[in-house]
Design brief:
It is built from 18 helices and nine strands. The chain is of the alpha+beta class. Strands 1-2-6-3-7-8-9 form a seven-stranded mixed β-sheet. A two-stranded antiparallel sheet has the order 4-5. Helix 12 packs across helix 15 and helix 17 packs across helix 18.
Length: about 425
């Protein structure tokens, strides 16, 4: 009816010469009116959003956090967030966490976007750093390499799963020169591991965990990855996987969040640990002995990135702090739908684990990525027996804490003994 009325009254329509022109003119008019009708609603919605952000910003200012609040991250489109300098991420988290009952929001540092931006910035300057890194490590790229020789070395090299070596035989000089560089890096890596009493193949629990063997691995493996990757391609991959514009993720339905919260609240975490441990031989692990005395981590690694050139951590320029409207802090994994990928448990299990460890150790979630969690621990274990018991819990919850990290339960117990932060990473 609307279109019919428009056809009969609009001057553009009346002036149309034939049927197709009339149809085109009518469609254009209908679209215009539809947009014109929608504009007030859009404007009203934008006004409400601005007002809501201003309200949350005011709440945060009242507790000493003077940061402008935003909304609309495509990874978490429904949640407010703020951006803070990397060095201020954890202190800001502390202030927000202490006053969460007043603001109505539980803070959680989200790192994937910030780290992607840093990685991308590194990749834009990658050609010079690669050359410098190779020089610092004592690697001398050759201008020409014998194909038969390098293929024989590739076939006989010690295997290390994390190495990004080419599959099959190299067939040209470009591939041969790159393979020769990788072989030199492997030899140097193996030598340094053995010199430090580390078994080749040991991997750190996560990027956040500073351990001697972890630093050694990162020192060589990062350079290897850069050698194997074209800078432009690597940069695009990092950006595509992590930045907000990579694609919108649908909102998590409120009903789903409520069900996950309920399941997590009701789940008996110790019982889940027992059932999981006995469900698969994979969860059988040696107690072993600790090879070194652990230095407890005294600061959050949430807003730090590893610099392969300087072989140390440096603060991120910025970190994003999500404001989760959860009534209890341990419910945050349900609001973020965290987990249920590969070996990572379902969101309800993370809720149950966070609830259990909060009650026993005062553990609070600090930061999150797509595949890792970090806890701040007020009352860490302070006896060997308690630390060993907790180590077994953490291993069943996240096997890579041992399988790709500590190596045995005793070493993991030494790592978490009196430690203020726990980091979990699922491969």
């Amino acid at each position: 009816m609307l279109i019919t009325r428009l056809f009969s009254t609009n001057s553009e329509f009346q002036g149309a010469q034939n049927g197709s022109e009339k149809i085109a003119a009518g469609i254009a008019i209908a679209i215009f009116l539809a947009v014109e009708t929608a504009l007030p609603a859009i404007a009203e919605n934008q006004a409400r959003t601005v007002e809501a952000k201003a309200s949350v910003t005011k709440k945060l200012a009242a507790v000493g956090v003077n940061s402008r609040v935003n909304i609309g991250l495509k990874r978490f489109p429904d949640y407010y967030y703020l951006t803070t300098p990397g060095m201020q991420a954890f202190p800001t988290w502390q202030r927000l966490h202490a006053r969460a009952a007043e603001t109505g929001y539980y803070p959680l540092i989200w790192l994937d976007k910030a780290r992607a931006e840093i990685d991308s910035a590194h990749m834009k300057r990658v050609s010079a750093p690669i050359a410098l890194a190779l020089k610092e490590l004592g690697v001398k790229p050759r201008s020409s390499v014998d194909l038969k020789e390098v293929n024989a070395r590739l076939a006989s090299r010690p295997k290390f799963p994390a190495y990004p070596f080419p599959t099959g035989k190299v067939t040209n000089q470009e591939e041969a020169i790159r393979a020769d560089i990788l072989l030199q890096l492997q030899d140097l890596h193996m030598h340094e591991l053995k010199r430090n009493g580390v078994t080749p193949g040991a991997m750190p629990t996560s990027m956040h965990e500073i351990t001697k063997y972890g630093d050694i691995n990162r020192k060589y493996l990062t350079v290897m990855m850069l050698v194997m990757s074209k800078p432009q391609s690597k940069e695009r991959n990092l950006t595509h996987q992590n930045k907000d514009s990579a694609g919108s993720i649908p909102s998590i339905p409120a009903e789903q969040i409520a069900k996950t919260c309920q399941r997590g609240e009701e789940k008996d975490f110790p019982q889940w640990l027992t059932m999981t441990e006995h469900s698969d031989p994979y969860y059988k692990v040696e107690t072993g002995t600790a090879n070194e005395v652990s230095t407890p981590q005294q600061e959050s690694r949430a807003a730090f990135q590893y610099d392969f050139m300087k072989h140390k951590y440096f603060p991120l320029p910025n970190a994003i702090i999500l404001l989760i409207p959860a009534k209890k802090s341990y419910l945050a994994p349900a609001y973020l739908d965290f987990g249920d990928v590969n070996a990572c448990p379902k969101p309800a299990v993370h809720v149950a684990a966070a609830k259990w460890w909060q009650r026993k150790y005062g553990a609070e979630l600090v930061s999150i990525t797509d595949d890792s969690l970090e806890f701040y621990v007020k009352n860490p274990p302070r006896t060997d027996q308690e630390a060993l018991k907790l180590a077994r819990e953490q291993f069943i919850y996240c096997p890579d804490t041992v399988k790709q990290g500590a190596g045995n339960l005793s070493q993991l117990a030494a790592d978490i003994y009196n430690a203020k932060f726990w980091t979990f990473w699922w491969d």
